[in-house]
Write a structure and sequence with these properties.
mainly alpha; globular; 87 residues
Length: 87
């Protein structure tokens, strides 16, 4: 789990920096390239969490959320609970 924790730290720092700098297109690029089928679920949830404050400003976050929701519904039993508050 240590590598996931380290990856989350880097993810939060990078996305937070980009959002503070107003580089929304870069954050959109990150979301566009993120594939829920190849990423650890904690990284996916980290992307949704860290981009939540800017959800109305990011062009692709809604689409990313829908992709994640479909993946979660397909892969996990507790689908209702895992995404609460992240839409």
């Amino acid at each position: 789990m240590g590598s996931v924790d380290s990856a989350l730290d880097i993810l939060y720092d990078k996305v937070d920096f980009l959002l503070r700098e107003g580089k929304l297109s870069k954050v959109d690029e990150i979301l566009e390239s993120a594939n829920p089928e190849t990423l650890n679920i904690n990284i996916i949830l980290g992307l949704l969490t860290t981009t939540l404050p800017a959800k109305t400003k990011l062009k692709v976050r809604g689409t990313f959320y829908e992709t994640v929701e479909a993946y979660v519904n397909d892969q996990f039993d507790d689908t209702a609970g895992i995404l609460i508050g992240l839409k």
